[in-house]
Amino acid sequence: MQKLIAFAAAGLIAAGSAHAATTFTATLTGGQEVPPSGSQFVATANLELVDTNGDDILDALNMTVEIPSAFDFSATDAGIDGNDGSQVVTVFHIHSAPRGVNGPVAFGIIGPNSDTDMDRMFTLNDDGSVTHSNQWDLGEGNGTTLAAFLPALLAAAPGEDVGLYFNLHTEEFRGGELRGQLVATPIPGALPLFAGIAAAFGFARRRMSR
């Protein structure tokens, strides 16, 4: 079913605009956790839906996350040595839920790692901060796929929340220390045919239910 849905969405995205792209930001804070963690640290993220194959189909979500030096990744599989911040990272995910609500993991970054083709990277910067970059491909996810979220991502208006959020967990805050909801910031001219995509998804689901 997911393959059929992804195919339908991809075809309509391609038909919409050869230059379509959508960008998102997230500011990760303790105040967005449910309940709030009280952490005063802040991380930031920038994301963009991209065409990786040159075929005018948006098929991946690129992301870059800037994490302050207070966060120590040495206990994870991030492959970073020499980072000795006070906040020991345990797991790191993108979850699915609206702001103010906790939801399941949609894409694992650390524990689990949902990336299947080695796009995940962590870089230790000179100031001790960490830069994470990754690419969430159309068929990747934790019990779901990026394809399932395309309608909401493509339909989001500038400044509008998307039902996905980053959650950075630490030993001190097992339920999550920093959370950041994705907020849409589409570039000018990015006007995907959401109505057609939604119709295609509905058709695919009806077909699979027969």
Automatic annotation (TrEMBL):
<dbReference type="Pfam" id="PF07452">
    <property type="entry name" value="CHRD"/>
</dbReference>
<keyword id="KW-0812">Transmembrane</keyword>
<feature type="domain" description="CHRD">
    <location>
        <begin position="22"/>
        <end position="184"/>
    </location>
</feature>
<feature type="signal peptide">
    <location>
        <begin position="1"/>
        <end position="20"/>
    </location>
</feature>
<keyword id="KW-0732">Signal</keyword>
<protein>
    <submittedName>
        <fullName>CHRD domain-containing protein</fullName>
    </submittedName>
</protein>
<keyword id="KW-0472">Membrane</keyword>
<feature type="transmembrane region" description="Helical">
    <location>
        <begin position="187"/>
        <end position="204"/>
    </location>
</feature>
<dbReference type="InterPro" id="IPR010895">
    <property type="entry name" value="CHRD"/>
</dbReference>
<keyword id="KW-1133">Transmembrane helix</keyword>
